[in-house]
Each structure stands twice: as C-alpha cells, then as structure tokens.
C-alpha cells in the first residue's frame, strides 16, 4: 500500500459489499472488483465498509473479513485503503480500528454514534478521540453524514481545534447537502492541509469549485473525473483577478 504520509485526494470508490443470494458475503468477487476499479475506471483509492458497503449492517466479524479481503486483493494494486470503523459501541469501534492497523490499512474513518447521540461538539470529539487512539499510527477521518446519524453538529464547528485533541486527524468525508458548512470547513482550514472529501454525488461539481480535494462515492468514475477536472479548470480561468 501507499505511504501513510500521502494525502488522500482525488476519486475514492465507496465499495459495495458483494453478497450471495443467501445473504452471505461473496468474497470471491472482490479480486475482480479491484481489477475493475483499477483497470477499467482508473481508481486506486477505496473506502471500505461505509454506507455504500453497508458496514453497519454487518457483524464485527464480517467487517473484519471484508477489510482483510480488500487489503489482500488490493496489495500492489491500490494506493490507499481507508476502512470505516464507526459503530454504536465504542469498544467495537476501537476493535475495528486496531484491526485496520494490524492488516496495514492506510487510514480509518468514523461516523458519529447515532442511537445515544452526542449532544455537543466536545462529546463527539471525545468519542472520536478514543477510537483514533486505538490506531495511533493511522490517519483518521471524520465521516460527516447527518442525514443518517441525526447528529446535527456542524462540521465547521467540529474541525475547530480538532487536531489538538486528535493528532492523527487528517480530514473529513462530508456527506451532507449543506454547502455553506462545507465551504466554511474549507475556508477556515486551508493552512492545515486537511483532505476535504465530498460525499454527495449530485453536488460534487459545486463542492469541487468550493475547494473539495476529492470525492468518495459510487458514481461513474472515469467520465466524472474528466468532467470535474474540466469544470474546475474553466472556473479558475474565469475567476476575476
């Protein structure tokens, strides 16, 4: 896998978890999936066990096995594998974070716990801090998806001073339609070189213009990559000096 110091940017595939007709994980096709992403779509970064991968519908054992299979089949083919390790249970999330480090993942991501929800920024950061500490050598990303978690703490508020509490924090997967919040995240943290990965496919073009450094999604990668690059170049060309 790529060096962990390499910034996560560009297109990142949110991978599905393939299933058999009997509801068991179909590990046999993950190798083909890797080859399709790399050879057909030109995508070498993946986000495993997230929303698209239905990670929170899998058991801890299944999540571990899925992560292991992606790491095994992606070796020497993929650049970065980020494993989503969020869970309602802090101990389960920590277990998954430690496992991600053991198998050589390039980063971990965590959503906010969404049953007994954190009621303010400090409570949420304390949860994230405990998970990040379980894998202290891995880059840590916060997965902001309030439509599913119901946690309405603004990402811009959360990022204020977050590296003082979580030294391994490297960026944000922003899966929300609040472009004002996203824009403020970018504008107020330009000097920190965070990865700002946008996760709402339908608004990606707008997010790129606002400063997104990458995208995590399940879109048609190669065509969208060309379209996005052309749009950003055109916007920069027309921007008044």
TrEMBL record:
<protein>
    <recommendedName>
        <fullName>N-acetylneuraminate lyase</fullName>
        <ecNumber>4.1.3.3</ecNumber>
    </recommendedName>
</protein>
<dbReference type="GO" id="GO:0008747">
    <property type="term" value="F:N-acetylneuraminate lyase activity"/>
</dbReference>
<keyword id="KW-0963">Cytoplasm</keyword>
<comment type="subunit">
    <text>Homotetramer.</text>
</comment>
<keyword id="KW-0456">Lyase</keyword>
<dbReference type="InterPro" id="IPR002220">
    <property type="entry name" value="DapA-like"/>
</dbReference>
<keyword id="KW-0119">Carbohydrate metabolism</keyword>
<comment type="similarity">
    <text>Belongs to the DapA family. NanA subfamily.</text>
</comment>
<comment type="pathway">
    <text>Amino-sugar metabolism; N-acetylneuraminate degradation.</text>
</comment>
<dbReference type="GO" id="GO:0005737">
    <property type="term" value="C:cytoplasm"/>
</dbReference>
<dbReference type="Pfam" id="PF00701">
    <property type="entry name" value="DHDPS"/>
</dbReference>
<keyword id="KW-0704">Schiff base</keyword>
<dbReference type="InterPro" id="IPR013785">
    <property type="entry name" value="Aldolase_TIM"/>
</dbReference>
């Amino acid at each position: 896998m790529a060096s962990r110091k390499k910034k996560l940017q560009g297109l990142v595939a949110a991978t599905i978890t393939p299933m058999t007709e009997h509801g068991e994980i179909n590990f046999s096709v993950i190798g083909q999936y890797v080859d399709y992403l790399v050879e057909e779509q030109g995508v070498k970064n993946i986000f495993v066990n997230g929303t698209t991968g239905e990670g929170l519908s899998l058991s801890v054992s299944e999540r571990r096995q899925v992560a292991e299979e992606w790491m095994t089949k992606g070796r020497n083919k993929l650049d970065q594998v980020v494993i989503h390790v969020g869970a309602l249970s802090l101990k389960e999330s920590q277990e998954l974070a430690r496992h991600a480090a053991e198998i050589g993942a390039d980063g971990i991501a965590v959503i906010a716990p969404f049953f007994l929800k954190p009621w303010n920024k400090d409570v949420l950061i304390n949860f994230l801090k405990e998970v990040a500490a379980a894998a202290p050598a891995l880059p840590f990303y916060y997965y902001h998806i309030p439509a599913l978690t119901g946690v309405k703490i603004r990402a811009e508020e959360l990022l204020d001073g977050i590296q003082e509490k979580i030294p391994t924090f490297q960026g944000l997967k922003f899966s929300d339609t609040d472009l004002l919040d996203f824009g403020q995240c970018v504008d107020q943290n330009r000097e920190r070189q965070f990865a700002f990965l946008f996760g709402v496919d339908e608004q990606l073009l707008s997010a790129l213009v606002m400063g997104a450094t990458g995208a995590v999604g399940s879109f048609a990668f190669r065509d969208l990559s060309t379209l996005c690059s052309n749009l950003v170049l055109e916007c920069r060309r027309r921007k008044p000096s």
